[in-house]
Each structure stands twice: as C-alpha cells, then as structure tokens.
Amino acid sequence: MRVIVIGAGFTGVQLARKLLAENRRVVLIDSDAERVRDVGNQLDCAVVHSAGNSLDVLEKAGIASADVLVAVSASDEVNMIACSLADAVYPQVLKIARVRNYAYYAATEEAARKFSEMTPPPPGRPPFGIDWMVNPDVEAAKAVTRALAHGAVGGIVELGRGYCIATLALGAASPLVGLPLWRLATVEGWHYLVANVEGQSGAVLPGGETVLSAGDRIGVLAKLDEVSAAAALCDAGSCVVSRMAVVGAGRIGTMVVEGQRGGGRSFVGRFRGGWNADSRMEIAVIDEAADRCRAVAERFRGVRVFCGDSTDENLIREERLDRYDLAVAVSENYDRNLVTAAYMKSRGVGRSIALTANADVAGMALKLGVDVAVPMRATVVDSIMSHLRGRNVTGVHTVCRGAFEIVECSVDPSARAAGKALRDLELGGSGLVLMVHGADGTSVVPKGDTVVDGGASVVLIVPAGDMRAVGLFAG
Fold this sequence. Notes:
The structure is a single chain. α1 packs across α14 (376-385), α6 crosses α8 (251-261) and α6 packs across α14 (376-385). The strands form five sheets. A six-stranded parallel beta sheet has the order 3-2-1-4-5-6, sandwiched between helices. A six-stranded parallel beta sheet has the order 14-13-12-15-16-17, with helices on both faces. A five-stranded antiparallel beta sheet has the order 7-8-11-9-10. The protein has four domains: 2-134, NAD(P)-binding Rossmann-like Domain (Rossmann fold), CATH 3.40.50; 153-233, Regulator of K+ conductance, C-terminal domain (Alpha-Beta Plaits, 2-Layer Sandwich); 241-380, NAD(P)-binding Rossmann-like Domain (Rossmann fold), CATH 3.40.50.720; 386-471, 2-Layer Sandwich (Alpha-Beta Plaits), CATH 3.30.70.1450. Residues 272-277 have low confidence and may be disordered. By secondary structure, the protein is α/β, with parallel strands linked by helices. The chain contains 15 helices and 24 strands. It has helices at residues 10-21, 33-42, 55-60, 76-89, 102-117, 136-149, 227-233, 251-261, 267-272, 290-299, 313-318, 334-346, 359-367, 376-385, 468-471; strands spanning 2-6, 25-30, 46-49, 68-71, 94-98, 132-134, 156-160, 163-169, 193-199, 202-204, 217-223, 243-247, 282-287, 304-307, 326-329, 351-356, 372-375, 393-399, 404-410, 420-421, 432-437, 443-444, 451-452, 457-463.
C-alpha cells in the first residue's frame, strides 16, 4: 500500500510511524521547512517540503500510483482542497481528511447523507471528493459518550451485535484478585473473557496462568448490558450515573450534554442510534466563558449552568457539586482537564472522565485516579487507521496506552483461515481471536474447535502494528 500524508504534525507523524512499521510506503508533505527537516531525520520515508493543496505537488509525490491520500494538515481548507483536486483526476484513490471546523464537517456530512439516500443514487463523487471525513471533536465525544453510557467504569470499545471490550480496574475486594485466568470460571457469576491485562510491569496478552492483581486494568469481553455485572465482580465501582457535571461548554461538552438531552439530526442522531437519552439525569455544566454558558443555558432546558472555575472549592461546596456521580472534564485545556477530574474526585465526586492530549498523558491520568482517560489524538489516529489496514479491516481501536490494537475484520472466502478451526491457525504470539460474528447473524466467543467461515467477521487483539494474524483472514 502506498499512502501520501499531507501534514507532518503529531497526527501525520503518528500515522506515518504506524504505516512504516507495517512496511507500507509513505510520503509525507508539509509546508514547514523546519518540521520537514526534523521529521526527515526521524522517519525512513520521503518527506516533501511544499503545500499539499497543489495537484502538481501531489503528482510529483506519486498520487497516480497511490492507494490512499490522508490530509491532516493544520488547515481544514488545505485538507479539503487537496482531496478535491486529487479526486478530480484520480478518483480511484481513497481520500481521508481531518476537518476541525465543525460547521464544515456537519454541512459536508449532511450533504453526504442526502447524496447516499437518493434513489437511484446520482452519478458522481461524495462532497469535495472526500471518502471519509474525520472531526476530532466528534471522535472524542463518541469515546466519552460510550464510557458515559456504561457508568464511566472504564473505556468501552463496541464490537457490534451487542458486545464490547470494557477496560475495568480491579479493586482490592474483587474475588478475581490472586487468581490465574484458568480459575476465573470458579468465581460465581464470572463468564467473561479477559482480552488483555495491564499491570505494574506493563501490558500483556494473557494466558491461562496469568495471575490478576489489585490495581490491574483488564479488558473484559462482555455484552453491553452486562458491563455493570462485570464491573461489580471487578470491584470497579458503581455504574449508576444520575447526576453528571460537565466541565467545558465547548463543542465536545455540548455534544456530551446533547447525548442526554437529544435533538434532531444532531450528534445523537448520527452516533447514538438506539441508545436512549436519559432526560431524568441531573446535569450541570461549568465553564469560565460567559458566552458559552449562556449558549448552553439557552439550548438545553433544565441543565444547571455555572460560570466559574471548576476547581473553586466555594463553587463546589455551595452548589453541592461534590454529591454528583460523575465529572466529565472536556475543555480544550487538556492539562486542566487532568487536574479538574482528579480534583473533583478528591472532593467527593464518584467517578471522572478526562479528555487528554495523548495516550501517555492518559496513562498518567489513570495513575492519578481518573477513571476514564480519552486521548484526543489517539481517537483521531484510530479512526483514520481503520481505513488504512486493508479492505477487510472495518475497525481499529488502540488499548493499553498503545500497546495493543483491537481489530475488526471480515473473512474473505479465499483467506487462509476460511473454513479452518482456530486451533489449526498459526497465530503464535501475533494475536488472539476474541469473537466470531457468523454470516448467519450468530456471534460466539470462540474455542479451539470454532471454524471460521468465509463471509464471517472476527475481532482480534494484536500487538500494535503487528498485522500477521489479521492477514490470515484477508484474501
């Protein structure tokens, strides 16, 4: 696969690193000369000093033979124009653009929706020639909303057909502590698969002899409606959220509130689908900007809005915010989110979610007692990588601070794995198959004798960047 990436900032470089680790051919384009020099010394790929919104530059970079164009420069306009120019001449190239401006994103998404719903569909390409548009705020809001839906007991990766991987912390009182995995079935009520274990010594793909310790964070494969039961056995805390304080009244904070109050073709309408908003939840929004507070108060009836500092002890005490079940810190100041989430928990708030800059800071947040840390940049990279792993890969989710990836993929009838039992596949240490979704609508947690048929789909957990196991299921 040949990929051209416009923008050599954090996201562009992270994408390039992942792709190079998988032996993909990458060309990076950036208009900042100093950045081009730095990245050129870091990565073993071609780095071009130029603006990306030029067809001539794209052609010199090899767009004619490229498989994918990813535009993640700092300018939304450059990203959109680059995709549009490339699509006009090279429509066969998959085009992905990061668009930070929500107005651009929402308008384009609505146009794409109307385009797809026309019967018969008109000839032509999607708006601006962009096959996939990624908005960082929307991706982060999705991650926060998934965690909130299950009481913020841990990060949630939805796997389809009612299943998920829930990252749960093991409390000292959990009956699982001290047991090797092969003995977990002896614990009353435990019938879940442990996909990964992250402890003091790092993250591992567990085996039957792996012993669980208090403080470990484990990835639990469970049905969505069983997360509460699994969390209780892990001593991970309560899943009931009846009072929520949202710190930050910007785009992401507004989407989180929208997730409970609903509203038309909104974030809820596009993402939440069948999950019903809980209009009974008591919600407070805190922000220091008066105009944002006023906008939230006007838009959402019944939401308590406070214009002030979320770490102000007087505000917390006088407004009784310390009795809330959950604090969601999602301002644009990632460092402040970390402090706010930890502080509000120390003042008595039951659980907390913090939006952080990256996975490393997310790890620090967890050590400070924050229950769920959502790394903004990782959500964007995951979303883009889901479209860069081959035509049979439908989803990629980073877990354990980047150590592992959960990969959803379809099984090609001509794949080496098609028609074989899992015990006959040479997975070695390259990954574990967590689920098999049959073409007939059935879903199973597989055993060694489970046969994977062509047309089915599987969910695997693999070391980050190691796609050997995934390759067994591709044609």
